[in-house]
Write a structure and sequence with these properties.
By secondary structure, this protein is α+β, with helices and mostly antiparallel strands. It has helices at 54-67, 75-92, 100-103, 138-149, and strands at 3-7, 15-23, 29-37, 42-51, 70-72, 129-131, 155-159, 166-170. It folds into 2 domains: 3-121, no CATH class; 123-171, no CATH class.
Length: 171
């Protein structure tokens, strides 16, 4: 493992970003990036990339580090976070992003069961908590949650515009 980074505040409600990197024997850096929603949707986005140089990789890493505080993390913890988020989301009727299959290669032989850190799933009152992102189909997701859990079975938050404007709806 070359490097494994995790959003510092990963245990708080909302989405987290994880960067997993593995140095390959042929000198390139393989990176997998995962945007994980522990509150509802699981793996919302993912991609894998192969970098010829450390400089190219550092550009990706630098951009992500500029947007959020990241910390070094154990690969088994990261694998457990991803696995638990996927299982939780599947119970709600959501699948991981299609690019997850390619990105997960960097997890290698990580063992989620070797990690004893509890992974917080859902939101208040143990109910799913959907935080709408800019590319989410809010109507579709809310309809799916309503069918699965009923109108009072989940909470959601919809950003309304500016950085501080949100609409918190308790369904």
């Amino acid at each position: 493992m070359y490097e494994c980074l995790l959003t510092k505040e990963w245990q708080e409600e909302g989405s987290i970003t994880q960067i997993l990197v593995s140095r390959r024997s042929f000198g390139k850096i393989a990176a997998g990036v995962f945007l994980v929603d522990l509150g509802c949707l699981g793996v919302k986005n993912a991609f894998g990339s192969l970098f010829d140089t450390q400089r190219e990789y550092r550009q990706l890493r630098g951009g992500m580090m500029a947007n959020q505080d990241m910390i070094a993390a154990d690969i088994n913890l990261v694998a457990k976070i991803i696995r638990e988020a996927i299982v939780y989301a599947k119970e709600l009727g959501f699948k991981p992003n299609r690019d997850y299959r390619d990105a997960k290669i960097v997890l290698g032989d990580a063992d989620p069961d070797a990690c004893d850190v509890p992974i917080p799933l859902g939101g208040k009152e143990g109910k799913p908590f959907f935080v709408a992102g800019p590319y989410d189909d809010v109507d579709l997701i809310v309809a799916k949650l309503t069918r699965k859990l009923g109108p009072d079975g989940f909470h959601f938050l919809i950003p309304m515009g500016g950085d501080e404007e949100v609409l918190l709806l308790d369904e």
